[in-house]
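Friendly challenge for the regulars: who can give me the structure tokens for this chain first? No prize, just bragging rights.
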Amino acid sequence: MTYPYFIPALAAAMLMAAGGEASADDAVRGQGLYKTMCMSCHSIDYSGVGPAHKGEFGRKIGSAAGYSYSPA
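First reply, four minutes later:
Bragging rights claimed.
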């Protein structure tokens, strides 16, 4: 399953927020990081060990149903 619509946008948004300029290499690196670090617990479309990332924007932090969150 691939997520070309999400990964490059996330990588670009993170870089822009950090004050840098995004490049195609940054998007590829972001996709690789997501696959190796995030996908073991998270999915774009469904909740598993961690809550789904789809619908994350606009959702209150720590509010996905069915998960316990730390006070942090």
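The two ends are 32 Å apart (CA to CA). The helical segments are 7-17, 24-38. Your move, everyone else.
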